[in-house]
Write a structure and sequence with these properties.
The structure is a homotrimer.
Chain A lengths: L1 E8 L4 E4 L1 H11 L4 E7 L4 E7 L3 H14 L16 H10 L3 E7 L2 E2 L5 E7 L6 E10 L1
Antiparallel strand pairs in A: 1-8, 2-7, 3-5, 3-8, 4-7, 5-6
């Protein structure tokens, strides 16, 4: 069981491809068959598995969320950190903070079109910490 | 690999902080570096990782879900157990039934503002069963 | 750590019960206490834990998603593969690509009313590949 922290500096709302960062932890671990568990230690950003070929997919995700969970919702009480404070928490709960990816032949066993993304939901840049736990043989 | 059941008595719709209950299973296990996997054995309640400082966040989650998946939806067929029967299933699928939290230095490796919550989606109180599986060293 | 691929042929949009297929991998593994991790290697279909008694529940899920993430959304850019291309990616991110189910007494430790379903979000049939990773004792 190997644990490593990954730090990601977001540039504000939007997605960042972290597949290579995660894969480098997997390769460093020397594990050939196993699982890589990712855990984001924040409640206003997400981890997602997303189509990795067309950047429009991530723009469209943003379009969807902007309508589904609009900033500045007048019915939300929690707004100490701004108009997108509570919407960021809702977006996080509708998506993912944590999942595991199989390790196959010493590599992430992702599908051809799958990438791992950090999705920042706050408008300001944030330093985000992901804990990676690797297990296997 | 250690498995323990946790029973939680919900008081009807709303969230309950179960972080301390989960942490006590982790401490009892004696595992120092590992993963705690949580699994809720029901389809009308959820497990979420949520901001743990301001109770308004959980009220706002409820506000959001009440609009996104309103009770008494006339287009839903499945309503044997009441107006919120099918909405409870939809809320569950939009959130989480299962995730793992890293164990770091013998404790849950949560972020400062993260708590683990049971989110009851039915209006009546229910006894909910969570299976905790601990692994590590 | 045992890894097996499961192939599922979807018949287009809709859910397929894959509980028995997953359970057969668990039984074959001989693991008595552990975890079965499921990972879907696609970004336009999901894995869900859903009520397994009334087929109307899955029809209602479809009704919900058809309204929440309608096909042919004029604000989406990514539509190379059709009107439901981008909605399929959004549905995937709102639900699940991956989770683990506890293994209890050599069987899947599901609740009485829980089944494991592949949810196809594309209108055409697709062959979907799920990687199952089993660990335990």
């Amino acid at each position: 069981m190997i644990q490593r922290g990954i730090e990601v500096a977001s540039r504000g709302r939007g997605t960042l491809d972290i597949t290579a960062k995660v894969e480098s932890v997997v390769v460093e671990s020397g594990i050939i068959t196993g699982l890589a568990h990712l855990f984001l230690r924040h409640t206003s950003a997400s981890l997602i598995l997303c189509e990795n070929a067309d950047p429009a997919v991530r723009r469209d995700l943003e379009t969807f969320m902007s309508r589904c969970v609009p900033d500045g919702d007048p019915e939300f009480e929690h707004s100490a950190e701004g108009r997108e404070d509570m919407p960021a928490h809702v977006r996080t709960i509708l998506t993912h903070s944590s999942f595991s990816v199989p390790i196959v032949a010493g590599r992430l066993g992702l599908g051809t079109w799958q990438g791992i993304y950090l999705w920042e939901h706050r408008t300001a840049p944030h330093n985000r910490r992901i804990l990676v736990t690797i297990q296997g043989e």
